[in-house]
Amino acid sequence: MIDVVVYNRQGQEVETLHVDEAALGKTVRYPLLKQAIVMYHANRRVGTAATKNRSLVAGSNKKMYRQKGTGNARMGRKRTGLRVGGGVTFAKVARDFSQRMPRKQRRLARDSAVLAKLQSGRLVVVDELAFEAPKTREMAGVLNRLKIDRSCLVTVSERDENLYKSVRNLPKVDVITVGDLNAGAICMRQKMLFTKDAFLTLIKQES
Asked: Thinking of the domain 2-35+102-206, which architecture would CATH place it in?
């Protein structure tokens, strides 16, 4: 069992949650976690590099001049890769670098990422993060009182527009819902900040 302290927005301890590692897969599966991170990075890659082959450059398909009798070397179409302005012989084409993983493996990788943050003390739980209006300064104060001074992933149970607008101008701080949580987003940030509702929702999904 792991004891997770729940803080309020002033940084004071209000209660303690007892979490069984079995709810998050018991152990951190590092090979699976690496596979998931490679997949998420590959899916963000944009393979748009391309060059024109001889079918894409402008020009006629007609033979430039007759085969014999001119005294010149034989020559075919104008768009050949042997001539200046012709197509590239081995042209680059746009590539799709995306990878796939089964849903169960993605969930196990997500749980391993959360468990790794939990075991290393980089996971913080706060009782609530409700804002009546967007307040970036107030959100920055909450993070400061919770001793979160590095990159952070804020996880909530459902989308809150005021919270999103309060966070979007803070550098290296992102907001995500529990349903969209994935290993790539978790490992991109140094710390995680869960609301109590979001953390309990995640634990109940896996138990």
From this structure: 3-Layer(aba) Sandwich (3.40)
